[in-house]
Amino acid sequence: MSAIEGGTSVATARRHGALPARVLVLTLAAAGYAITLLVFYPGYITVDAQYVYADAQAGRLGDWQSPAMGVLWLLVEPIAPGALGMFLVTASLYWLGFGLLALIAARRSAALALLSLLAAFAPPAFVFVGLIWRDILFGVVWLAAAVLVFATVDRDWRVRRCAQAAALLLVTFGILLRPNAIIAAPFLASYVIWPARFDLRRMAIFFMPALLLSYAVVPAVYYGLLDAKRQNPLHSIFVFDLGGITHFTGENQFPVTWTPEQTAQLSTSCYNPVWWDSYWHVPPCPFVMQRLERADDVIFGTPRLVAAWRRALIAHPLAYLSHRATFMWQFLARSNLVLPVWDWQKPEASYGQRPAFKALLALHAALQPTLIFRPGLWLLLAIAALGCGWRARASPAGAFAVGTAGAAVVYVLTFFLVGVAADFRYAYWCVLATLAAGIGAALARHAQASAQVEPDRHRHLG
Predict the structure, then answer these.
(1) How far apart, in whole angstroms, are the C-alpha atoms of residue 217 and residue 228?
(2) How far apart are CA 427 and CA 421, in angstroms?
(3) Which DSSP symbol is given to 220?
(4) Model pLDDT, residue 461
C-alpha cells in the first residue's frame, strides 16, 4: 500500500466516523437544553434584573444597569413575556456555545466532544443559566461569539465573514452589558478578526485602537442611540474607594462633615470589602449615601465627589492600594454570594419549587463554600489554559484558547480597579472562557500529536 492510499483510507475512515459523532453530539446537546428547561423554567428574574425589566417596560432606560439589556428584553417580550424570554435567550446562547464546541471537538476526538458537553454541566457554569443577570448574559454572549468564529475558521470565506461579523456584534453587545469589559474586549475582538493564529505583535498594534473604540461605543449607544438617563454608576466606585481609604487611614475622606459617632463608624465598622452596599442601603452605614444624595445638597453624581476621590488617591495611595487589595482578596479567595438563595426562602416565593431545581440548590449549598466557587481558582485555571494554548497559538485551536482565556484573565483583573461587590457572578465569563479555552488547548495538543503520528504512519505504510 502506498503512503497516498494509506492517507486516503485514514481520511475516509475519519469522515465515516464523524457523522455518527455529530449526531451523538447534537442529541446530547438537545438533551442538555431540555434538562436546562426542566431545572430552571421559566427563569428567575433577580432583583437587579427586575429594575431593568421595569425600566424597559416603562420606557425609562437608565445606565445604572445596562439599557442594552432592557432593549433586548423588549425585543423578545412578544415571543415569551417576563423572565421566560430572557431565560430562553441565555439558555440558547449557552448551549449554542458548548454544542458548537463539542461539534468542533468531534472532528478530532469523540472523548473531547463528550468532555465539551460535560463541561456545560460544571456547577459553576450551569447553576447560573436560569438566572436573569446581566453578568450571566454577558458571559454566554461572549462564549457564543468566540465559539462561532472557531467553528467557521476553516469554512468558505463567505460563511467565515458572516460569522465574524456576527461575533463582533456579540462582542460589542457584551461591552454594552458590562462596560468594564472594554479592556478585555480587544483580546477577544482580535481573535474574532484573526482566528487562524494569534500574533503578539499584531495584538499590540491592535490593542489601543480597539480599546478607544470600545470606550467610545458605550456613551454613543447609551446616551446617543438609547437616550438613557445618567444615574452615575461610576460614582459607586468613588464612594467605595473613599470609604476604604477612610478606613485604612482613620481619617474622613468624604467631602462631608460627619457627627463624631459617624466619623468613628466610618473608620471602623462601616467598611466591608464584600460590597459597597454598607454605605448605601445595608446596615451599618446607610447614612453615607443618605447624606450624599440629600436633596438640598446633592454630592453623589457631582464633580465634588470626583474631586474628593482624586484628592484622597493623591494623598493616600498606599491606603487606596490596601483597600483595593483587600477587596480583591475577598473577591478571588474568600467564600462569597453565589446564588441569591434568600429569594427562594421567602414564604411568598413561587419560583424554585420543582424537584430538579431543589436538587440543584442542594448541590449549590454543598459546593458554595468550596474552592470550586472561588474566582481565584478560575483565574489560575484561565492562566493555565492561556499558557497551554500559547504553545499552539499559530493554530486555530491554540488561537481560540489564547483569545478566550486572555480576555477572561484581563476581565477579572479589571475588578481590582472597578469592583464594588465580590459576588461570584462577576467571574462568570472567566468560568465559561476557561472551560472553553481548556477544550481548545486540548484540541491543539491533539492536533499536534496527530501531525507527528501521520508522517510516521505514512513512512511505515510506504
Answers:
(1) 14
(2) 11
(3) I
(4) 46
CB-CB contact of 245 with 319 (8 Å): yes
Q: What is the pTM of this model?
A: 0.93
Give the Cβ contact number of residue 264 at 10 Å.
13
Helix (H, G, I), strand (E, B) or coil at 300: coil
DSSP letter (8 states) at residue 198: -
pLDDT tens-digit series, residues 219-261: 999 999 999 999 999 999 999 999 999 999 999 999 999 999 9
Q: Could you give the CA distance from residue 326 to residue 275 in angstroms, rounded to a whole number? A: 12
What is the distance of C-alpha 72 from the center of its chain?
Answer: 18
Q: What cell does 337 get?
A: 454570594
Q: Please give the grid coordinates belonging to residue 237.
A: 466606585
Residue with cell 461579523: 165
Q: Is 142 exposed, middle or buried (0-12, 13-18, 19+ CB in 10 A)?
A: buried
Residue length of the chain: 462
Phi, psi at 45, each rounded to 5°? -85, 115
H helix or E strand, kind and range, residue 45:
strand 44-45
DSSP 224: I
